[in-house]
Amino acid sequence: MKKTITLLFTVLVGYAQAQTADSVTIRKIYDEALANGKSYDWLRYMTKQIGPRLSGSAGAQKAVDWTKQLMEKEGFDRVFLQDVMVPHWVRGAKEVAYIQNGKQKMTVPIAALGGSIATGPKGVEAGVIEVKSFPELRALGPDKVKGKIVFYNRPMDPTKINTFEAYGGAVDQRANGATEAAKLGAVGAIVRSMTNVRDDNPHVGGMRYGTGVPLIPTAAISTNAADLLSKSLAENPNLTFYFKQNCETLPDAKSYNVVGEIKGSDKPDEIIVVGGHLDSWDLAEGAHDDGAGCVQSIEVLRIMKALGIKPKRTIRAVMFMNEENGLRGGVQYADLAKKNNEKHIAAVESDNGGFTPRGFGIVGTPDQRAKVMPWKPLLAPYGLLEIGAGGGGADIGPLAQLGTVLFGFKPDSQRYFDYHHTTVDKFETVSQRELELGAASMAALVYLLDQYGL
Ligand SMILES: [Zn+2]
User: Fold this and answer.
1) I want to staple 239 with a disulfide (CB 3.0 to 4.6 A). Which of 42, 101, 121, 194 is the partner?
2) What is the number of other CB atoms lying within 10 angstroms of the CB of residue 147?
3) Confidence band (pLDDT; 50, 70, 90) for 10?
4) What is the 354 CA–ligand 1 centroid distance (Å)?
5) CA dist 169 to 194, 390, 438, Å?
6) CA of 121 to the centre of ligand 1 (A)
7) Whole-angstrom Cα distance, residue 79 to residue 71?
């Protein structure tokens, strides 16, 4: 009995000492990020000197070159590119749109959705059918819809506390609206922007066409203009809507994921990934989406080096290409990991904006999640209180099939969709402090994953 008690005591003391050592290291990680952090300067460069980075664009290539050079300059053990073919969609000349209500012509802001076809040089003009859902559209049937422009006007649910949930509840209109409308003979689809704010910015994003259905042009309309169109339709159901867009899908282009690595000292074959996506929408500087996630990921490795933390496992910062309109980079990364027989124990993604950290969502088995729970007291002092089952991230998603445990960095979500996929997703909307706290949060998690595995 005495022996057992002694053993238990030894284990407990050991555990307490480990916790103390970990809490000291995590404190140092935050100190380094907040006193000597580089992520904010890097983000300034990425947004102001490089700017929009849609797949296949010159900006995307510049971002590849620059992040590669940056990680080399930081002295990571290995920096390399992974080839990946990506979609190459271009917007062309700025869109034109107006509501023709009797003699009154009201110009409204729209932007073609990524992947959409053009309208042709004359544009499209037609009567408008407003709906809030696909069932409502189908109930109208082809008689009412044929030859019309379908206007999807279901807002993001403002009562959802997590705005990503509200986004998830509305984004089907953007992704599949054109196809559902075309099935009933519509000639175009106009979609209310995915945001809770009333503004004049069309919020763009990806869409896809279904097979065997005619392709019709589709665009996002600003929320203010969506409200105006809805109100005008209530007054005059016979008004018409005109829009012209000039976008085009070019042949796939060659691009790259950019990977920087610190080699593990003890278990170099076990890999921990921390990443974000390098591409952004063409209208946006891509500060929150996802320049923030990229610079935070590089900062995680820089912090480890600066503090002399020698990881047991190999830590990789991955800049994924083409999250926005294809996810080819994420798929390629997982394919290569499989092909090369790499063992990825965990992947952490930051793609929810550079806002105040709240926690991490975990995709893994209950046993794997249970292993993370003892770390909660170490992370709680830094505001990381929401740690549990949740979303990982689009780019790291394909790694799940290899048994990798996924972690989605969760910052506060309240302002994300104010800026999402618009011209206002700018450097100026990112707080240096919030960005740095995010980088430190990710570094603390990566440190613990490296110490204890999963
Ligand atoms: Zn993103």
Assistant:
1) 101
2) 11
3) low
4) 11
5) 10, 16, 26
6) 32
7) 7
Could you tell me which residues are beta bridge partners of residue 344?
A: 271
Question: CA-to-CA distance for 427 and 39, rounded, in angstroms?
Answer: 12
Distance CA 115, CA 202 (A): 16
Supply the Cα-derived Rg of the chain in whole angstroms. 24
Q: How far is CA 212 from CA 112, 116, 189, 373, 378, in A?
A: 22, 16, 17, 48, 54
User: For 351-365, how does the pLDDT look when each residue is reduced to its tens digit (9 = 90+)?
Assistant: 999 999 999 999 999
State the catalytic residue, choosing from 323, 324, 342, 436.
323
Q: Which residues surround ligand 1, an ion (CB under 5 A)?
A: 289-290, 351
Rounded Cα distance, 452 and 25, in Å:
14
Beta carbons within 10 angstroms of residue 164's beta carbon: 18
Q: Is 323 a catalytic residue?
A: yes
The sign of the torsion formed by the CA atoms of 425, 430, 434, 437 equals positive
**pLDDT score, position 84:** 98
Regarding pTM above 0.70, the answer is yes
Rounded CA separation 278/54 (Å): 9
User: Token digits for 387?
Assistant: 């740690």
Ligand 1 mean position to 286 CA, how many Å? 8
Closest CA to 23 of 444, 451, 449: 444
Token pair in block for residue 226? 């969506």
Alpha carbon of 318 to ligand 1 centroid (Å)? 14
Omega of the bond prior to 157 within 30 degrees of 0, cis? no
